[in-house]
Specification:
The structure holds 2 protein chains of 2 kinds.
Chain A (H helix, E strand, L loop, with lengths): L1 H28 L2 H27 L6 H37 L3 H4 L6 H33 L3 H16 L4 H27 L4 H22 L7 H4 L3 H12 L3 H13 L7 H24 L4
Helix pairs in contact in A: 1-5, 2-3, 2-5, 3-5, 3-6, 3-7, 3-8, 5-6, 5-7, 7-8, 7-11, 7-12, 8-10
Chain B lengths: L2 E10 L4 E11 L4 E5 L6 H8 L7 E6 L2 E2 L9 E4 L11 H11 L4 H14 L15 H11 L7 E5 L7 H16 L3 E6 L2 H7 L2 E6 L2 E7 H5 L4 H15 L1
Parallel strand pairs in B: 3-8, 3-9, 6-7, 7-8
Antiparallel strand pairs in B: 1-2, 1-4, 4-5, 9-10
Classes of the chains: A mainly alpha, B alpha/beta.
Chain lengths: 300, 241
Amino acid sequence: MTMIRIMSMENIGFHRFKVLVINTIFNEFRNKSVIFFSIFTLLVIYADHALINFIEGNLPGMAPSDTLVDMKMKAFYWIISSWNGLMAIILGINTVKADLNMQIMPQLFAWPIKRMEYLFARIVGSWIVIVGYYIISIILAYIVFKFFGTGASIGASIGAAASAGGGMLSLFSSIIVSVLLSSLMILTVITIAVFFSLYLSKVWGLIVSILAIGFIGQANSYFSMVPFSEITDKLDGIFSIIKLLLHYLIPRVGVLSNMAVQVFMGATMDRNIFFELLHFVASYALLFYFLLFVFKRREL
Amino acid sequence: MVIEVKNLSKSYGRGQVRALKDCSLSIPKGIIFGLLGPNGAGKTTFIKSILNLLKIDGGEIKIAGINYQDERARLNLSYLPEKFNFYPYYKVRGVLDFIGELNQLDAIKREQYRVRALKKLSIEEIEMKKVKNISKGQLQRVGLAGLLMGDSKLFILDEPFTGLDPIGIKDVKDLIINLKSNGATIFINSHILSEIEQIADRVAIMREGVILAEGAVTDLKGKSTLEEFFYKTIMGAKESK
């Protein structure tokens, strides 16, 4: 009987988690930033496409076609990747803060919802919105570049780049791996922004989150290429010690982002992907546990 | 007992403001219970403590025999805050469906319960309106309609008459009586004594975090009115202080 009761509670918990995730997607889908970035992405795709067509049409021989294509894809990918980080911060700041500001949270917690379920549902819902935007942007860009104007050579270029860097990786698998790596970065950024939103106003939360993510990214680039045995040589002050702690204790947003770009462009990866994924799992669990700890202490 | 509270204490600001002082209450099944008190008496803090929304300083709280910190304690519970609120871009229908979904209703039941709830609260005409386009009174009615989007056995209502016109107040009273007739227990926070006197079986009077009196409405008021008893109790406590 007890077993049945526990299982039934788990089913109820999952059902409510699902309802909350859908509710989050429904809320964030209307977020003005998401709408703005989606429209802007369309403009970037169009501008990028028009520019390469213009260069190829008017300045033949300025650069090899494949180089132009690579530059164009890199620029497009770099732009939407940086937006994803910003979007993750904006949605992360908003997702829990809106429930607090509108006094909806006490209503929600009158249901048998665990704080962990709520927090994870809000983070996952926001994550789905951004990753969805990300995937749609890439697919859309690919379709435009492939089937309009100079598309054929672009498709070939990406495929060549992917196979050159990734060996067995096909174009689509390199995109999938790249998106997966970026999505881990997005998950981390949302979680960090949610943490700051518990204590700060939306504007200050946004500013502090941007600075914090920037600082973590800097810490990652500072320590990522340093062999473990030479770390002590790099410690020359309090800031370097903080950077070291961030590099090892917080998911490595900078490293994940770089790896995503490298996979997408077919470049040789300078990090061990399995070690980085292992580090992500452990450090994200730590980050989420810390967020949950402070959230549980919050009175509603 | 549906709700059992023993020696509940709660303070704010590192113990500087003691909102609840050793409060004890036992609420039996199937009654309408009114917690009365002036503004700032600690009524909302009491409700929020029961719902595990606040960290209490001490005491014991059980709902349906289950410790209040266990999520299962709130399985058959519905709560209406003093000011019900929801995401402004949701339609009223969407709000009720969301509540129905959280209460595990399938699509067919959600539809049935929604139609019934809208009719009971006389808000059929705003079903397709967005929350941002309805009045505060209508929004409160939507919150009340939400109470009917499930099969809860315990209802906790914080100032349910606030913001309602006389017709709305009557609808709420009818709703509460109807819930009781279906075997539910209703816990109401209020300072509108006349309405509580008409519907409550038992009441407790609270002032500055202390429960001053508790019992059956008929026993407490005797031959006078609940208002007179309330006034005497509150003023008596003030004088003895």
